[in-house]
Design brief:
The protein is an alpha/beta fold. The protein has 11 helices and 11 strands. The chain is globular. It holds the Pfam family BD-FAE.
Length: 316
């Protein structure tokens, strides 16, 4: 008998555009969708390289672009913790004072990349009159998901407490992230900051790009082999389970060439946030695969960039 993976999902609009290779049917009352995959189909739905033949080229481009930006616009690096990895790069305009701050959390399937690959959007934000920060944290297998969440939270608390040191406004801190960084961004946006000894509304807005909001299907896929989460941790680190904690506007963006599960996950988050008046906007990046979405922030004229700057109050 074929091994199958079955679970409930949400986001009916996304399912209409999902892959027809799996079965799905709706419960009209609860607005839930029962999803039925073979293990191979589920693994592929959470393996973006299957859907993006140029993945290596695009990912390699992150580092190349970042290196060029860092050479032309050298950041100031600060420590937010005691470990050598707990560093963040600050890109700020000359004479910055009281500017909004965008903190970026990199992706890489929780296993790859770093702040060194994350400088691409810095020139756009600096030119718009903002401070851009790329944070670093330990990846798996040297870290765990709870460990990553802890590092990202501590980095954001540090930014809030030290914003004036680099010309930022502690009352205007925003967070963004892509892929697994999009998931971590959603976790940050659904964090009770008072429990971290920070202001309840530490964050004034966020941008979730191609992220994941529900880890239940993720841990059933091949990714579960290295995430190694308990049922309690799946609940704790699934932002869709903590919608009451979102207290600021959020943009949700994904590419039209992403896998059906990533489309569904992002639509699910957007629908849920809309229901709580926390959705700032939805952007479907036409013709972009998973890895290409984040590069939109490298262009001042991109719709995602314009929406992000508007979220930060940096419109003309």
């Amino acid at each position: 008998m074929t091994n199958r993976r079955q679970f409930f999902g949400y986001g009916l609009a996304a399912l209409a555009a999902a892959s027809s290779s799996r079965s799905a049917w709706a419960d009209d009352v609860e607005k839930k969708v029962f999803l039925d995959y073979t293990q191979k189909q589920l693994n592929e739905a959470y393996t973006q390289t299957v859907w993006a033949p140029n993945a290596k080229q695009v990912i390699d481009g992150y580092a190349k672009t970042s290196e060029e930006v860092r050479r032309k616009l050298p950041p100031v690096t600060y420590a937010y913790g005691d470990k050598p990895s707990e560093r963040l790069d600050v890109f700020a305009p000359a004479g910055a004072r009281g500017l909004p701050v965008m903190v970026f959390i990199h992706g890489g399937a929780w296993q790859q990349l770093s702040k060194e690959d994350s400088a691409g959007p810095a020139p756009v934000f600096v030119a718009a009159g903002a401070v851009y920060i790329a944070i670093n944290f330990d990846n798996m297998p040297d870290n765990t998901l709870p460990g990553m969440v802890d590092q990202c939270r501590r980095a954001l608390v540090w930014v809030g407490a030290n914003a004036t040191r680099f010309g930022g406004d502690p009352e205007r801190i925003y967070v963004s992230g892509h892929s697994s960084g999009g998931h971590l961004t959603a976790v940050m946006l659904s964090t009770d900051w008072r429990a971290c000894a920070a202001p309840a509304q530490l964050l004034k807005g966020g941008v979730v790009m191609s992220g994941m909001c529900d880890l239940a299907p993720v841990v059933l896929s091949v990714r579960g082999t290295y995430l190694k989460l308990s049922p309690e941790q799946v609940t704790e680190y699934s932002p869709i389970r903590h919608l009451n904690r979102f207290n600021c506007p959020v943009l949700v963006a994904w590419g039209t060439l992403e896998s059906p599960e990533f489309k569904r996950q992002n639509r699910q988050l957007a629908d849920a946030l809309a229901g709580r008046a926390r959705l700032a906007g939805v952007l479907r990046i036409k013709g972009a695969n998973h890895f290409e979405v984040v590069n939109e922030l490298n262009r001042a004229d991109a719709s995602l960039t314009r929406a992000t700057l508007a979220l930060m109050g940096l419109t003309d």
